[in-house]
Design goal:
Shape: rod-shaped
Number of helices: 3
Distance between the termini: 78 Å
Number of domains: 1
Order of helices and strands: HHH
Structural class: mainly alpha
Strand content: under 5%
Length: 55
């Protein structure tokens, strides 16, 4: 019983490796979506180039 309590308290300290990996994956997905929306076919950069050429 004593060993169970000790191991349980040791596991609850800090951030786990799984949580860290999940956080990194989510950030990479968000970065990919952002880059695609900026540089894609209908991206912000292409729209701004089209607008600047009209003038």
């Amino acid at each position: 019983m004593r060993k169970l309590k000790e191991s349980k308290s040791q596991g609850s300290k800090g951030i786990t490796l799984i949580a860290l990996v999940i956080t990194i994956i989510v950030l990479l997905i968000l970065a990919g979506v952002t880059i695609a929306s900026i540089t894609g076919e209908n991206g912000i950069l292409r729209k701004s180039r089209k607008c600047s050429r009209k003038e």
